[in-house]
Amino acid sequence: MPYLIHLAILIGIYGILGLSLNLVVGYTGLLSVTQAAFYGLGAYATAVLLTTTGLNFFVATFLGVLLTSILALLIGFVLSRFRGDYYALGSFGFNIIIYSIFLNWQSVTRGPLGIPGISRPTIFGLNFSDNLPFLILTVIIAILVYLLCRFIVNSSFGRVLKAIREDEQALQVFGYRTAHYKLTIFVISAGLAAVAGSLFASYITFVDPSSFVLFESIFILAIIILGGLANLRGSLLGAFCLILLPELLRFVGFPSDVAAQMRQVVYGLILVILMLYRPQGLMGEYKL
Amino acid sequence: MGILPQLILNSIIAGAIYSMVALGFNLIYSTTRFFDLGYGAITAVGGYTVFWLYKLHGVNLPLSILVAIVVAGLIGVLADVLVYRRLRARRASTMVLLVASLGVFTMLQAVIAIIFSSQFQTLSSGGSKVYGVWGGAITEIQLIILCTAIVVMLLLGVFLKYTRFGRAIRAVGDDEEVARVVGINTNKIIRFVFFVSAGIGGLSGLLVGFDTGIEPTMGLNLLLKGVIAAIVGGIGSVWGGVLGAFFLGFVENFGIWQISGEWKDAIAFALLIVFLLFRPQGLIKK
After folding, report:
1. Coil, helix or strand for B131?
2. B99 touches chain A (CB under 8 A)
């Protein structure tokens, strides 16, 4: 049972990450491979604030989201000048640069040692130090994120995003300043990823750079491609499948080192097979 | 004096390695017009094939290296036949190809880690000769890397320019449709390009293995440096890639002169982003 709760919390966190990335990749059609950087920024901001100042978790999360959004504004501004493959490569670059900062800014992040002793959230006398209440908190936040995303994609703003994906130039002819829309959705997406980061940091009570490598971004991308691009429920389904899959592999009885690598083989295989046979994913509405 | 000659030497060695990776990458890009990330894992294939033959089974060195290049080349062809060619036939967008190649990369890297464990290994049996050049030091293997890179560059340059096959490759790169109409077997040409590129990738991977060592994840770093070099130099241009590689080598090594070496990757990507912003066509425009 504790094991199932653990998995459910992870599904919730990765569900939030998938939802946030789908706004950019699925709805707006920008292949961003840097979500782990924002996830990490949220996690580190929360970790540093909680361990050094003893702020409340929710205040720290809010500040983490704010910080991440500001940085995302800068990064998104640079990325908005690229398109297609170059957008993907540039976003790769930012993931690696931010990872380098986590690794090398020793005085703040403690480098490869990571930051231990992050406290669990408390609010109004409620304490989330047990995993079951933490799961409830995660589910509530995931639902809020889902509703927010649904509101965004169904609004007129969301319709403009989809139009950018289909034909950006035509939209520019109609006088839409598409760069503003792309930047806005990028910042919102990064902020939501930071929320997932805060939850992760406080759940594991420890952060280190290895959780936010480029591969993590690829994993989040695999979640939304599997579940379906431009489909919010698809992101949740993708998180569900890709978190549970390695657990199934574990039951097959591989030794742990091999099991970890088998996971990657399976993720890679999923990407290849989907691209070959179903590039829109299981529930998707948009093909890359 | 003091550190400067060494910095210059280090930059040149790094540039030589990157230029080989960039050559292979550029060759694939200029014929198929997509960023083949799977190419990164091929470098590790080269390194590990030599490790398996030469270190574990005592096969003699030249033969091991030759086999490694061929194995790497064949895996490159395999990726094309099983995945990329089908996607191209369906006119999939370059994004689909990019994601598929990311999948190929992830799989290959993990398979290598399963077979050989993710431990770091060295290929050289220690103690290579060190030469002094202008007050800096260069090891024998680094000298070999430099010479190999120059030979590969020249051979490829001559091959592309003066042979029928080379001209056919350039024709496919300019326009696959037209090339097919005038009777070029484009699939055969592209298969060949994948073989040559992957072979060069495997060669650079095994050379890195002799210089610093091999691990299953070595491909990502080499690939990204190769891609950055190719873009900085001018994507699709063979000589541009070489120029970009040496430029990147110098920027990286002089960049970390005053700060710690772990920032190398960040510096490389900062360079990429600056170029994408201010000179997206690269140093040499094709």
Report:
1. strand
2. yes
Q: Which of B35, B95, B270 sits opposite A97 (nearest CB)?
A: B270
pLDDT tens digits, one per residue of A220-247: 998 998 988 889 999 999 999 988 887 7
**CA–CA separation, A49 and A109 (whole Å):** 11
- Cα dist. B61→B123, B125, B271 in Å? 11, 12, 37
Instruction: Compare all CA atoms of chain A with the CA of B107 and give the residue at the minimum distance.
Output: A265
CA distance A40 to A90: 18
- The 3-class SS string of A230-287 reads CCHHHHHHHHHHHHHHHHHHHHHCCCHHHHHHHHHHHHHHHHHHHHHHCCCCCCCCCC
**B132 bridge partner residues:** B137
Neighbouring C-alpha atoms within 13 Å toward the C-beta of A265: 15
Cβ contact, residue pair B266, A271, below 8 Å? no
In this structure, chain B runs to a length of 286
**Does the beta carbon of B115 lie under 8 angstroms from any beta carbon of chain A?**
no
Is the ipTM reported for this complex over the cut 0.90? no
B99/A271 touch (CB, cutoff 8 Å), yes or no = yes
Q: Is A267 on the interface with B (CB under 8 A)?
A: yes
Give B212-223 pLDDT, tens digit per residue. Answer: 899 998 988 899
